[in-house]
């Protein structure tokens, strides 16, 4: 079957959309460029805690260790729906994945803070991790949201090709400055937003370890920033782990670990998951 789903599948999709209450949270590209995770009015902290402590020079390290985690699976991932900045909760598999990655991270060095996109699928994953790691400093910030997908929001990839060909062409364009019709972001805009925010986090946590929970396309851009020579299409599985060393002094990024899913031994995840 090519293109459009059969009527039965449309009914299933409509039921899932209603069940999981897809909500689109509009946010302009300009508003996304938040640079202060702990003091801006756009932040939503889950606990009334003070800002993270200033970087400690006693660690003797010039960089922050930033552990970046993708959110768990959603129904949209399983159905290959372009979610972008639509707000949807994890499905049962995603919740299991969140528990498993949280258990793994709880057995590693305790992070100074956990940062997260404010969308539900990421916030739930981040809260699960923060609880397991006994970290009260959890900061939700829209700067870590997925790419704004414009007119493609809510469509399957197959339907997007037929019903929104111009938007889909922009989405698949190799021109990194190409914005997606309907208010969508370009890859350059996505990269600038996410990289800027991680640099801000790194400057606050020099010599410390922090966890950042975000989305697939956002992580791809972070990896490309660390290794701009890579031309390989990156696959970012749900709750996979990437580790960056980021120097706020030199601005240098090193990708130390990529796409690690060693914790997912008993939970399946879609190979083609996106967003």
From TrEMBL:
The active site of this protein is located at: 71 (tele-phosphohistidine intermediate), 146 (proton donor/acceptor)
Q: Which CDD domains match?
A: HP_PGM_like
Q: Where is this site: Transition state stabilizer?
A: 215
**Cellular component aspect of the GO annotation:** cytosol
Positions of the UniProt region annotated as Disordered? 40-60
Family per record: Belongs to the phosphoglycerate mutase family.
Under what name is this protein listed? Uncharacterized protein
Q: What is the lineage of its organism?
A: Eukaryota, Viridiplantae, Streptophyta, Embryophyta, Tracheophyta
């Amino acid at each position: 079957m090519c293109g459009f789903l059969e009527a039965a599948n449309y009914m299933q999709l409509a039921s899932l959309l209603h069940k999981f209450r897809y909500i689109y949270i509009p946010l302009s590209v300009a508003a996304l460029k938040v640079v202060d995770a702990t003091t801006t009015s756009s932040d939503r902290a889950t606990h009334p805690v003070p800002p993270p402590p200033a970087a400690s020079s006693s660690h003797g390290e010039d960089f922050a260790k930033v552990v970046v985690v993708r959110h768990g699976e959603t129904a949209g991932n399983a159905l290959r729906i372009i979610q972008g900045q639509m707000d949807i909760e994890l499905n049962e598999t995603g919740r299991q994945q969140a528990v498993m990655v949280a258990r793994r991270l709880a057995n590693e060095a305790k992070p100074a803070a956990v940062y997260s996109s404010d969308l539900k699928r990421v916030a739930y994953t981040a809260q699960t991790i923060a609880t397991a790691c006994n970290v009260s400093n959890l900061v939700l910030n829209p700067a870590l949201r997925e790419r704004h997908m414009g007119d493609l929001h809510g469509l399957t990839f197959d339907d997007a090709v037929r019903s929104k060909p111009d938007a889909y062409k922009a989405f698949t364009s190799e021109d990194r400055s190409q914005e997606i019709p309907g208010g969508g972001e370009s890859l350059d805009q996505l990269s600038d937003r996410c990289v800027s925010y991680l640099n801000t986090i790194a400057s606050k946590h020099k010599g410390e370890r922090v966890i950042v929970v975000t989305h697939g396309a956002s992580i791809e851009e972070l990896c490309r920033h660390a290794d701009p020579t890579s031309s390989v299409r990156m696959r970012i599985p749900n709750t996979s782990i990437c580790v960056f060393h980021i120097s706020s002094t030199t601005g240098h990024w090193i990708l130390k670990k990529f796409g690690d899913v060693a914790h997912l031994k008993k939970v399946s995840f879609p190979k083609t998951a996106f967003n």
